[in-house]
UniProtKB/TrEMBL annotation:
Transmembrane segments: none annotated. This is Troponin I, fast skeletal muscle. GO terms for biological process: cardiac muscle contraction; skeletal muscle contraction. InterPro entries: Troponin, Troponin_I, Troponin_sf. Binds to actin and tropomyosin. GO terms for molecular function: actin binding. Keywords: Acetylation, Actin-binding, Coiled coil, Muscle protein. Belongs to the troponin I family. Residues 14-102 form a coiled coil. PANTHER family: TROPONIN I, TROPONIN I, FAST SKELETAL MUSCLE. It comes from Nestor notabilis (Kea). Troponin I is the inhibitory subunit of troponin, the thin filament regulatory complex which confers calcium-sensitivity to striated muscle actomyosin ATPase activity.
Length: 178
């Protein structure tokens, strides 16, 4: 137990010594950053000397406004470049994710959809595309045959029951429905 206590005390002492060293390093880094900042400002921003006359003061203001505009343009350009690269990175990461195949593809269900609805879903609601294929067909008037006239004239359902029975009758009923 004495050895354990000694090892624990030594570990705590080493930990406190490391924390003290880290704190001094952080202080040194902060001081170095401050000195670097002062040097940069002294190099790039000379001290401002205000002229005495009104004309010189207006010229100085114009120069400052021109500098501000150029800096603002540069800032805007860099922001646009940053946004563009961020978008490219996002797209590339999505492509990479797709290539890795980490996601599960959901099972596809069969959906009944008309051609108009499908085009509307693909192109969005902005585009109004009509795929009515029957609209472009030539209209043909159906000529009444004597047989059809007879069937219409017959009021008794028992006379044409044999015609409608079986598959041929169903087919005729289906064709007549269209």
């Amino acid at each position: 137990q004495k050895k354990r206590r000694a090892a624990t005390a030594r570990r705590q002492h080493l930990k406190s010594a490391m924390l003290q060293l880290a704190a001094t390093e952080i202080e040194k880094e902060a001081a170095a950053k401050e000195v670097e900042k002062q040097n940069y400002l002294a190099e790039h921003c000379p001290p401002l000397s205000l002229p005495g006359s009104m004309q010189e003061l207006q010229d100085l203001c114009r120069k400052l406004h021109a500098k501000i505009e150029s800096v603002d343009e540069d800032r805007y350009d860099t922001e646009m470049k940053l946004q563009k690269t961020n978008k490219e990175l996002e797209d590339l990461s999505l492509k990479l994710f797709d290539l890795k195949g980490k996601f599960k593809r959901p099972p596809l269900r069969r959906v009944r959809m008309s051609a108009d609805a499908m085009l509307r879903a693909l192109l969005g609601s902005k585009h109004k595309v009509c795929m009515d294929l029957r609209a472009n067909l030539k209209q043909v008037k159906k000529e009444d045959t004597e047989k059809e006239k007879d069937l219409r004239d017959v009021g008794d359902w028992r006379k044409n029951i044999e015609e409608k029975s079986g598959m041929e009758g169903r087919k005729k009923m289906f064709e007549a429905g269209e």
